[in-house]
Amino acid sequence: MTSVPLSVLDLAPVAEGSDNGTALAHTTALAKRVEELGYHRLWVAEHHNMPGIASSAPAVLLAHLAAQTSTIRLGSGGVMLPNHAPLVVAEQFGTLVALHPDRIDLGIGRAPGTDQITALALRRSVEGLSAEDFPQELARLIGYFEAGSGQPRVTAVPGRGDAPAVWLLGSSDFSARLAGRLGLPFSFAHHFSAANTDLALDLYRAEFRPSKWLAEPYAMVAVSAVCADTDERAEYLSLPSGLSFLRLRQGRPGRMPSPADAAAYPFSPLELEFIRARREGQALGSPETVTEQLNALLRRTKADELMLTTLVFDVEDRIRSFELIAEQVAPKLVTRESP
Predict the structure, then answer these.
(1) Which of 3.30.365.10, 2.60.40.420, 3.40.50.10470, 3.20.20.30 would CATH assign to domain 2-239+283-336?
(2) Closest CA to 61 of 94, 16, 93, 108
(3) Which of 83, 184, 193, 293 has the fewest beta carbons under 10 Å from its own?
(4) What superkingdom heads the lineage (predicted)?
(5) Helix or strand holding residue 15 (H, E)
(6) Does 324 have pLDDT greater than 60?
(7) Residue 101 pLDDT
(8) Are 283 and 212 in contact (CB under 8 A)?
């Protein structure tokens, strides 16, 4: 029996009254601390046209984080492939692998991670933007890392021979099925699509075919986690994330409000129900409460790895949450069978 690896997903959140440089410095401080705490990997997510998220350029941010750390795996959670030409992604992540061998993950997502107008501004044409294009775009990307693949007379340099660990990300069944059929590791976005988690993981395992990358399926589940000394403190710290997500869904994204501002917000009953529903299946509370919640998730999903994302206003509270989980929660998590 082995312990389930714990990893980190970060969005470089920009707090109200702060700026992008500070947000990126906080993500750097977080990466250094979670490496010390023994977390397995840290990924950053690609989002665009969102004032409260500074991780719009994963490859650039990962280069900085890799230079500031030494052992933790780093990757994208994910690069949203419809936004980019596959050759560009191959060259960027091939460069990262050349600089930092055996430490780089390339998590690939099918959604643009933004609105359609911004997606078009990124890609500059509609080519490659539809869901139907994704399998072909993914095959083209992977081909650039392999000899004898890719487009004739086009070589990714760096890229060919400098392959990262490729993952598929998903929040529905599409990428679950594709990851299984290709024999790739799969990461499911339970933190914003909890209702689809069980079905997606079942489909991934059912569709899995052994490959040169994996002999058996490997599923990671991304889950929101806010751990504090008490349940009440964790509830208070989580309020800004709930309000930020609500504003995003209402079409008015902004920087992350403070807990005091979020607590004073006049939520309607419908808005409160929206936030309550979003929290279902997440981990929120004291170390004892978070242990129970994560163990319940592990028993239900049989995840091979958990990736925790913690969106709170203050970086000290963010780091403290990961410290509490590493020190008081991780030793009490259920174990899994060794491969």
Answers:
(1) 3.20.20.30
(2) 93
(3) 193
(4) Bacteria
(5) none
(6) yes
(7) 97
(8) no
Cα separation, 192 vs 189, in Å, equals: 6
Domain boundaries defined on the chain: 2-239+283-336
Residue 75 · residue 104 · CB < 8 Å: yes
Q: Locate tokens 């990300």: which residue?
A: 169
Q: How far apart are CA 116 and CA 34, in angstroms?
A: 35
How many residues are recorded in the chain?
339
**Residues 6+ positions from 183 with CB-CB distance below 8 Å:** 208, 209, 210, 211, 212, 213, 214
Contact 188, 222 (CB under 8 A): yes
Mean pLDDT of the chain: 93
Cβ neighbours for 333, distance < 8 A, ≥ 6 positions apart = 3, 4, 291, 294, 295, 298
Pairing of strands 219-227, 6-10: unpaired
Q: Which residue has the tokens 């389930």?
A: 4
User: DSSP characters for 58-109?
Assistant: HHHHHHHHHHH-SSSEEEEEEEEGGGS-HHHHHHHHHHHHHHSTT-EEEEEE
Closest CA to 256 of 17, 88, 75, 3: 17
- Convert the pLDDT of each residue in 160-173 to its tens digit: 999 999 999 999 89
Binned at pLDDT 50, 70 and 90, residue 148 comes out as: low
The whole-number pLDDT of residue 251 equals 85
Whether 224 and 284 have beta carbons less than 8 Å apart is answered as yes
Which of 174, 179, 53 is CA-nearest to residue 107?
A: 179
Report in angstroms the alpha-carbon separations of 163 from 140, 155, 317.
13, 13, 36
How many Cα atoms sit within 13 Å of 41 on the Cβ side?
24
Rg of the chain over CA atoms, in angstroms?
A: 19
